[in-house]
């Protein structure tokens, strides 16, 4: 069988993909924090880089294997964004889909949990010190970046 994969080990390719996601998260965190928006172009470029790496350097079907999980993430969080728009923005939904593609099921839920707990702590502190009201919204990308960085550092030291 013909294989067009470049001679890079999958472990290395996965780490590069995770670093691309980390860079993407930190770059969109700034605009999410300042402008409360996540640029579609940044998400598209990040996703296309991850897809290209998996397509060129991964296993034969590695680029396609994460798509069902990405679809579940898009439908679940996209549904929440459509039903309750104040809870999560569509930029956050697309960023979560990129994270699902890069990480896979287990690490994605761990990063999501760390990010959500960090957001809960941040919101609680803002409320405690009267810096925000209950109707105040928080950008989620910075918290996702913290969760991803925490997971990445812990996975690096395993």
Automatic annotation (TrEMBL):
Protein source organism: Brevibacillus invocatus
A Pfam family per the record: Peptidase_A24
Protein name: Prepilin peptidase
Similarity comment: Belongs to the peptidase A24 family.
An example Gene Ontology CC term for this record: plasma membrane
GO molecular function, one term: aspartic-type endopeptidase activity
Domain Prepilin type IV endopeptidase peptidase: 19-121
Keyword Transmembrane helix recorded: yes
Cytoplasm is among the record's keywords: no
PANTHER family xref list: PREPILIN LEADER PEPTIDASE_N-METHYLTRANSFERASE-RELATED, TYPE 4 PREPILIN-LIKE PROTEINS LEADER PEPTIDE-PROCESSING ENZYME
Any one of the GO BP annotations: signal peptide processing
């Amino acid at each position: 069988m013909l294989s067009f994969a470049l001679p890079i080990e999958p472990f290395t390719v996965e780490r590069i993909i995770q670093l691309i996601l980390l860079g993407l998260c930190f770059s969109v965190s700034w605009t999410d924090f300042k402008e409360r928006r996540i640029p579609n172009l940044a998400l598209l470029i990040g996703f296309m880089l991850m897809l290209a790496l998996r397509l060129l350097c991964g296993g034969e079907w590695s680029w396609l294997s994460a798509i069902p999980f990405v679809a579940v993430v898009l439908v679940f969080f996209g549904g929440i964004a459509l039903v309750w728009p104040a809870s999560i923005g569509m930029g956050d939904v697309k960023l979560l889909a990129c994270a699902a593609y890069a990480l896979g099921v287990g690490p994605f839920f761990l990063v999501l949990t760390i990010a959500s707990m960090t957001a809960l702590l941040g919101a609680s502190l803002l409320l405690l010190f009267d810096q925000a009201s209950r109707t105040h919204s928080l950008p989620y990308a910075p918290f996702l970046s913290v969760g991803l960085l925490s997971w990445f550092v812990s996975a690096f030291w395993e």
